[in-house]
Design a protein that fits this description.
The protein is an alpha/beta fold. About 35% of the residues lie in helices and about 20% in strands. The strands form 4 sheets. The protein has a 9-stranded mixed β-sheet with strand order 3-2-1-4-5-6-10-15-14, with helices on both faces. It has a 3-stranded mixed β-sheet with strand order 7-9-11. α3 packs across α5 and α9 packs across α12. It starts with 7 loop residues before the first strand and ends with a helix.
Length: about 350
């Protein structure tokens, strides 16, 4: 029996790129047929377009959409910033996957309180709502980012606090397992660098990068979903799952996408809050890290949850600058996931 069999799953921020791929995977039945999947977000237009996508799709999930509250896939307008809407949404839910976030680094720098309201207060509202619920929520998965590790920007700071809010939830609500996943740049997700480069190339350039030394971890959307599923299956209370993934220089991504086109690659300078390299596991976390198959797992800092620590899998931080792919390897990776110009994977889904 799969982990989603007969479960009700709530996905906050479920109309985003990750939420859409996650929803598709859950509805595929590969991890069991869910009782219900609830898409919780504040944008009615995105919900409408996502609903229409399923209504016109010729697949086994066609029948799950019609009559919103009577079928497997339900769309619910709400906002993680609002406690009452969160409290209402979690009623009868078994698994919560918190993908709601303000994640654009410059936007968070200019509007830090707005970032805190979504990324920190939103997490606290989930914890409070569960505490006040008579229904047992089995698992909460907090979707975090490499920017939460040794944060230097508002987005990372607020996501780091979100991680701590969820970890602490294991102490105050022992009936629920709070776990985390943390990963870097998701290839072709909305607002990420690849669709941005595609648009610049389509307009004749220039392709702009902030610095030629910048590196990033590269994770396909399906692999981002894989780690969420792996964490639900295997993570202990308070653990953070980290994918072991390749990294590339951003300038090599730009070069691979431009190819032989006569398009300028222009250096613009680092934006507010950007790092040169991203870090998924800090030096302080390394001694609490063990390897679990394709992933690293960081034990929680709180001693009530950590338990005896095994021999660490790392002796230093895990950084995107540690081992960077060549230009050829970067091009091969983009080809593999059909992310080059004109390939089918870069559909309108990623550009909405």
């Amino acid at each position: 029996m799969g982990i989603f069999e007969k479960k009700t799953i709530l996905i906050t921020g479920g109309t985003g790129s990750l939420g859409k791929v996650l929803t598709r995977r859950i509805l595929s039945g590969e991890e069991g047929k869910p009782k219900k999947v609830i898409i919780f977000s504040r944008d009615e237009a995105k919900q409408h377009y996502m609903r229409v996508e399923y209504e016109v799709r010729k697949s086994p999930t066609d029948e799950v959409i019609y009559n919103n509250f009577k079928r497997i896939l339900e769309f619910r307008i709400g906002d993680v910033r609002d406690f009452q809407s969160v409290k209402s949404a979690i009623d009868g839910v078994d698994i919560i996957i918190n993908a709601a976030a303000l994640k654009q680094v410059p936007s968070c720098e200019y509007f830090p309180w707005e970032a805190a309201r979504t990324n920190v207060l939103g997490a606290e509202n989930i914890v409070r709502a569960i505490k006040n619920s008579h229904h047992k929520i089995e698992t909460v998965v907090g979707v975090s980012t490499d920017k939460a590790c040794k944060p230097v920007n508002v987005m990372g700071m607020t996501k780091s606090l979100q991680e701590r809010v969820f970890v602490a939830g294991n102490i105050t609500i022992p009936k629920t397992r709070f776990i985390l996943v943390r990963y870097g740049n998701v290839l072709a997700s909305r607002g990420s660098v690849i669709p941005f480069f595609h648009e610049q190339i389509a307009n004749g350039g220039p392709v702009t990068i902030t610095t030629k030394d910048m590196t990033r971890f590269l994770l396909p959307l399906d692999k981002a979903v894989d780690i969420i599923i792996a964490a639900i299956k295997h993570a202990k209370r308070g653990e953070t799952f980290i994918p072991i993934v390749p990294a590339s220089k951003i300038i090599n991504i730009a070069k691979a996408l431009v190819g032989t086109r006569d398009i300028e690659i222009k250096i613009t300078g680092i934006r507010p809050g950007e790092k040169i390299d991203e870090i998924l596991i800090s030096e302080e976390e390394a001694f609490r890290t063990r390897k679990k198959g394709k992933y690293y797992a960081i034990a929680p800092l709180l001693p009530e949850l950590a338990g005896p620590l095994p021999k660490p899998a790392l002796t230093k931080e895990y950084s995107s600058g540690d081992e960077v792919m060549t230009l050829e390897q970067t091009r091969d990776l983009l080809n593999k996931y059909k992310l080059m110009i004109g390939q089918t994977k870069m559909s309108g889904e990623f550009l909405k």
